[in-house]
Specification:
There is one protein chain. By secondary structure, this protein is of the alpha/beta class. It has 2 domains: 10-138, Rossmann fold (3-Layer(aba) Sandwich), CATH 3.40.50; 176-366, 3-Layer(aba) Sandwich (Rossmann fold). It has helices at residues 19-30, 44-54, 70-79, 93-104, 126-138, 150-163, 192-195, 219-232, 286-297, 314-322, 340-346, 356-366; strands at residues 10-15, 35-41, 58-62, 85-90, 109-113, 182-188, 209-215, 236-239, 250-253, 261-264, 270-273, 301-305, 326-330, 352-354. The strands form 3 sheets. The protein has a 7-stranded parallel beta sheet with strand order 8-9-7-6-12-13-14, with helices on both faces. Strand 10 and strand 11 (270-273) form a beta hairpin. Helix 2 runs parallel beside helix 3, helix 4 (93-104) crosses helix 8 (219-232) and helix 10 crosses helix 11 (340-346). The protein is elongated, with a radius of gyration of 20 Å.
Length: 367
């Protein structure tokens, strides 16, 4: 059953400088009876003016627009507390950089347009777009108990990281991790790029642990995402590549459209693999990554499942806990979308349930 059954329609404002894209977006959304497209905007200035007047539940915002670009329009809409914004980005290097900037400034999430800036093929990502707009419309824009917004915390973490001089993380260990090394397997999806900034930057470079991160994201975005994390974390962060040896003090980000697994060689070395199989709803899959890490490291595995739509990772969290590992699920209090962690909790796969800002401390207590 649709979670919006018998509820008012979700009122969406579409902002895009392409008339073709505006028509395509309207059709994609109005194919779903949960949505009502209340208006469209041709540029950032038009989007802000109509958002102020119409007070939509959510805005679908293109990044590249004339007069006022999507990022500037986003800042105005978020600062005035009008509604959440989902960004539409091109599948390019420039599009990825702009997308992560918008997430740091408070965008709820993003959808990458197939085929570039103007595309009539948006139907191929229609499911993702609709799901994220629904999640955005139902989300709370402010944290409870008067806490600062997540966007403010992310900006603070990013600013502080960029003010720090280069740290000793530049000197990476040359040999395989010691046998007592812990591993932390993190799964995250919708709302993840901002949420993970409350976890990874708080981990020191000299931990005797390796980190594996699956963030559901297109393949052209995971490389820039890993580089952006590396700039703000004491850990060394890199996109996973086949044959790389797992080392402590490193975080490996699964590449979009590929799985990330760990293989134990005959000499005991742990090497990354990036197969295209199995085919899963989301690729990379949190379940596939976590189960592989568990097979390689057993009870030394710490599983972390955070914000996201669906149940990817929930079954693996159960297996990690049953095997003697330790599992952490993000609480409803802070989860942008309380889907993946809720499923893990309901299936008995969480040792503890914590707010996002407490996850790093819990990990460090177990290392």
């Amino acid at each position: 059953m649709c979670p919006f059954h018998d509820k008012p329609k979700i009122r969406v404002l579409i902002a895009d400088d392409s008339a073709l894209m505006r028509r395509t977006l309207r059709r994609v959304l109005e194919d779903d009876s949960d949505f009502e497209v209340i208006d469209t905007a041709r540029d950032g200035e038009d989007a802000v003016a109509k958002a102020r007047e119409l007070r939509p539940d959510v805005v679908s915002m293109d990044i590249n627009m004339p007069k006022l670009d999507g990022i500037s329009a986003l800042q105005l809409i978020i600062s005035e507390g009008i509604c959440p914004v989902v960004m539409l980005s091109s599948l390019t290097q420039h599009g990825a950089v702009a997308t992560f900037e918008s997430l740091e400034l408070g965008a709820f999430d993003f959808v990458a347009k197939p085929g570039g800036t103007v595309s009539a093929e948006l139907g191929s990502v229609a499911r993702d777009l609709r799901a994220k707009l629904k999640a955005a419309a139902s989300s709370r824009s402010l944290d409870r108990a008067g806490r600062r917004t997540r966007a403010e915390r992310v900006r603070r973490v990013t600013r502080e990281a960029r003010e720090l001089p280069p740290g000793p993380k530049l000197a990476l260990p040359e040999r395989a991790a010691p046998s007592d090394m812990k591993v932390v397997a993190i799964g995250i999806s919708t709302g993840g790029p901002a949420t993970i900034m409350e976890v990874l930057p708080a981990i020191p470079h000299d931990v005797n642990a390796a980190f594996f991160l699956v963030q559901h994201m297109p393949g052209s975005f995971t490389g820039p995402f890993a580089r952006r994390l590396d700039e703000t974390c004491q850990l060394h962060v890199e996109e996973a590549a086949a044959g790389v040896e797992v080392r402590p003090g490193c975080c490996y980000v699964a590449r979009g459209e590929y799985q990330m697994t760990v293989h134990r060689a005959a000499n005991g070395r742990a090497l990354l693999r990036t197969p295209t199989k199995p085919d899963t709803l989301f690729k990379p899959s949190v379940d596939v990554m976590m189960e592989s890490v568990l097979a390689a490291y057993g009870a030394s595995t710490i599983g972390v499942l955070m914000t996201g739509i669906g149940d990817d990772g929930a079954n693996a969290m159960v297996k990690i806990k049953q095997a003697g590992g330790y599992t952490i699920a993000e609480s409803e209090e802070t989860a942008v979308v309380y889907g993946m962690p809720r499923e893990a909790i309901e299936r008995g796969g969480a040792n503890v349930v914590l707010a996002s800002w407490d996850v790093a401390k819990a990990i460090l207590r177990r290392l």
